[in-house]
Amino acid sequence: MIKLCGFSASNYYNKVKFVLLEKAIPFEEVHVLFSPPDELLGRSALGKIPFIETDEGVLTESQVIVDYLEAAYPQTPLLPSDPFAAAQQRELITYLEMHIELVARDLYRHAFSGLAISDETRERVHKTLSRNLAGFKRLAHFAPYLGGETFTLADLVAYLHLPIVSMASKVVYGSDIVEEAGIDWKSHGTLIGERPAAQKVVADRKAYLAARKAEAGR
After folding, report:
1. pLDDT at residue 114 greater than cutoff 90
2. pTM reported for the whole predicted model
3. Burial letters for 70-95: b for 16+ Cβ neighbours within 10 Å, e otherwise?
4. Where would I find the H helices in the chain?
5. Are 199 and 14 a contacting pair, CB within 8 Å?
């Protein structure tokens, strides 16, 4: 059985978990935090999460993992069978993760932990995010899914990342930079949130955060 290693507050952990649930692949969750002990570095070369343990070995990096799951468990596909159409969905994922979420990450420590943020960082991130969100909007259809009429892996990724980018921008800038780019992420999120796998991921994330908060208050 596949072991999914990481923790439920991580979007990238939840990306893999969402795929496992959508595909009805049996798996076990193993709680692993950032900066694991040295003995875990043999399983995750940089000590990063998520990673999965399989009978064939360990895989790291969420996109590598979900590409493996897509190939190894094709019964419930999350990408189109046409190679070009599948590449278009991976293109959307790349925009979401490299050009939006990774850029917005510079806001997270201030937005969610209250740490200081420089004016230079605020301005740089706002400029880059505005440009990249506009590019993403030109690629995505939202009709009703990102690629058209069919739910794909790109929708799953957008469901996990866009709300956090929105929340961080509201704290740092006082407005939702995603909505300002003309991206109706809330309607899309409501649609994806109807899926049982999405509901399971969200419920587990809330339970994990509540448990950590209770531990911190002791």
Report:
1. no
2. 0.94
3. beebeeeebbbeeeeebebbeebbbb
4. 11-22, 62-72, 83-94, 102-113, 119-139, 153-173, 177-180, 185-192, 196-216
5. no
pLDDT digits (tens, 9 = 90+) for 178-214: 999 999 999 999 999 999 999 999 999 999 999 888 8
Token output for 1: 């059985």
- Which residues, in sequence order, are CB contacts of 39 under 8 Å at separation 6+? none
Q: Which domains does the chain have, with CATH numbers?
A: 2-72 (3.40.30.10), 83-213 (1.20.1050.10)
Q: What is the DSSP string of 32-85?
A: --SS--GGGTTTSTTS-S-EEEETTEEEESHHHHHHHHHHH-TTS-SS-SSHHH
Sequence-distant (≥ 6) Cβ neighbours of residue 59 within 8 angstroms: 51, 52, 65, 68
